[in-house]
Write a structure and sequence with these properties.
307 residues, 3 domains, 12 helices, D-Maltodextrin-Binding Protein, domain 2, single chain, five-stranded mixed beta sheet, WH-like_DNA-bd_sf, alpha/beta, Arc Repressor Mutant, subunit A
Amino acid sequence: MRKRIPLNAIRAFEATARNSSVVKAADELCVTPTAVSHQIRQLEEFLQVRLFIRKNSRIELTTEARANVHRIGRGLDLINDAILALEASDYDERRRLTVSASTSVATFWLIPILSEFTRQSEEVDVTIKTFLTRKEAEEQESDLRIVNWLSQLDCHSEPLLEEEIIPVCSPELAARFGNDSRTILQSAPLAHVDRATGGMDGTYPDWARYLADFGISRKGVAHGSRFNQAGTAMEAASAGLGVILGRSLLIADALEKGRLVPVADPYHIRSPYYLNASWKQMESEPLVQFRTWITEKVRSKELARVA
């Protein structure tokens, strides 16, 4: 068990010893010289040791005090460093936000727009975590998740947006088939994204489902290149390898830059996305700022699309 020590008195002693002056120590500690002298007497009584000797107008450390004053100074420095570290840790915790999203959503949608949030909320440090599966997503520690399923976790959940599935390919491939939607869907090579088949919540169509629903008859629908990641499939489509069922959230930039072009109507069922927020962090300022920003961002995009 540690001995109960008078820390204020020790601080007064160390400051006086370091400054060789009661007056300077009092100025440093923002107290009166009388208070410093009182604290030093209190410490001497506690230790039953004399700490200073007065010589005319000067004070000098006793032999015992001189032998230990540097160790006391180092001890106070350690305490000060520990307090600063605790303050920094608490500050970091209050300004940090962890956001989880699938690898493809984070790469092709969130990160390209994230600089807008960091510019308007410079005090918030955002950590992005990515996942490939629902299990991985729900096992991650995160303040906010962007997901396309209804979670069974105990969290606040709210709709964010709806994603469309749109057949897209490179402009060159579309031109080879006369830029005609029906001809492209009947004859152009198809590329498949295995991970997206069925979707996280069953709403993503595969090519067989899409073509059947649009009344397109085609042999060998399962034939063609296959990919297990949407991003890889998008690069392949941009290179002219085939037509993919592109996810509107991921292909927006490629469409805008002309690397991909839509070749037919979107699928009639949209896939919803949700914001799942930790109850513990719901009222934290970083999370409130991010939720407000991202919902307004999505709403402005939706309004622009409708217009």
